[in-house]
Amino acid sequence: MQLRPRQAQFVDRCTEALLFHGNTLGVAPTGGGKTVMLSAVASDVNGWDGPICVVQHRDELLMQNRKTLHAYNKKADSDLFNADRKRWNKTGVTFAMAQTLARPDNLKTMPPLGLLIVDEAHHAPSDSYLRVIDHALKLNDKCKLLGVTATPNRGDRKAMRAVFSNCADQISIKELIETGFLVRPRTFVIDLGVTDKLKNVKRTASDFDMNEVASIMDHKVLNDRVVEEWQEHAADRRTVVFCSTIAHAEHVAATFMSYGVTAGVVHGELPDRERADILAAYEHGEIQVLVNVAVLVEGWDSQPTSCIVLLRPSSYKSTMIQMVGRGLRKVDPERYPGIRKDDCIVLDFGTSILQHGSIEQEVMLDGAGTKICKGCEAIVPKQCQECPICGLEFPAELIIADTKKCKECGADNPIAVRFCEECGAEFPKKEKEDLEEFALSEIDVLQFSPYKWENMFEGLAWVACAFEAWAMCISWRGRWIALGGKKESPLRILGDYADQSLALVSADDFLREQGDMEMAAKTARWLSLPPTDAQLRLLDLTPMTAMGMTRYRASCCLTWMFNERGVKRRLEDYQNQRQLVAA
């Protein structure tokens, strides 16, 4: 087992950060190879001042991590510290259950460690993990601390900086999709006529009240409709369904079976052996639909899964990302011969996508509601217009589509949330609408563009400008090619796709990284102004022939005119390179 180049870079960055800071956080989504990267760091036993301990919160993860370590390094020496076996490997790696190790009597047996690795590191600020971490540092103040996770932001909004002072690297979901290591999610938001009711479900300390969710969602007419929508969009796909309660899951599974579809149910109250048998039956294709309650959110994957059904809302974005992530892994053709998987269909009946908007997640070590001043690096409330320490004025933040502003603190929130994500204030309830029709719409879950994309040549090309940079999405030889340009930099091919939306996402991301988002945002007033005299002169237009043209569209037309020859030459070079590779 070898690291891919991006994984090796991740490992190097984490190692460098550990040596420099003494601790670090590495973020990689499902399918990024988090376990093998963790193993690469752990296998370098001689690189640390003492033995290594890997802490996780579930037995399945403990055994998975140990198995991967030995697959990566067959000479690795390891042992287990859990409820059944409490053995420290004092020269190699010990895989420990956090709940077991955190007990005072067990902590007393811990040897001085050189490296402590926390898997699913978003759990690190919890009391049991902190007891383990504090004790390890007490025994050896030179012990390094590495956290790895797919979801760096906790649902309870506790700051991760209490444990990790920095983030060494983050591999994004989009990055893995574009490089071919994850499949693209095709997400459908489906309204069963209960959306308003779901928006008003009360929250508990950990999530929405799932009993209340079940009282809304668990009805025969709705369960029938769920199966009918699934049959229309994903009838030939292995599917994982997320439900609110055990009774809800059992009713949904029974509904699938009444339609002649094989289905099984797993939940936390099942005996371990029975749950393992059902998971094995799904893995071997004996069951097509696997319905679960909270047990498959993290730490479990089955590559053939190509449909995710969300029949519950997610109070926290991290939960939604973990659920969708169960279906994004690519299929290993040697392990699953004959199974093809090009994408993953996500059927969201529970409003999660509308509430959270994207499956990407920013790393916020300081918790929600704060930002760092670039002048003095002070941590200040997010709503501050200027730094209270050094007086630096913060730039105005862009308002993206589908948001609403909190009247209490002024923060922008996703349109579907009931409570402000910054201050907790409740938004006023809207009058309920009678929804007689079931609504279905496909949306792009990866990005909502802050830029205005101009349609050129009846949809054969799209152009957007952002002062320092510009990007294009061009239909070329049956494919969609994304290109990006920047002053004094060579023209770049950003991606080659069968799907136009993926090309637009790739081009849009280039602008986000290289352009001026504040000045070129589609909400900027200047975009709608008439063209300048200089623009008209360069485009050989008169005020009369330019009727209806805006200053921004004129900029895009000029961008195309100035770069057309270079774009065509770059596309021909790209085609020649592809032919050479194919040969």
Give short descriptive properties of this protein.
single chain, 583 residues, Rossmann fold, 3 domains, 33% helix, globular, alpha/beta, 7-stranded parallel beta sheet
What does this protein structure show overall?
With 583 residues, the protein is an alpha/beta fold. It has 3 domains: 5-171, Rossmann fold (3-Layer(aba) Sandwich); 172-446, P-loop containing nucleotide triphosphate hydrolases (Rossmann fold); 454-582, no CATH class. The protein contains 18 helices and 23 strands. The strands form 5 sheets. The chain has a 7-stranded parallel β-sheet with strand order 3-4-2-5-6-1-7, sandwiched between helices. Strands 10-11-9-12-13-8-18 form a 7-stranded mixed β-sheet, with helices on both faces. A 5-stranded antiparallel β-sheet has the order 19-20-21-22-23, with helices on both faces. It is globular and about 85 Å long. Mean pLDDT is 80; it is low at 377-381, 396-402 and 430-448.
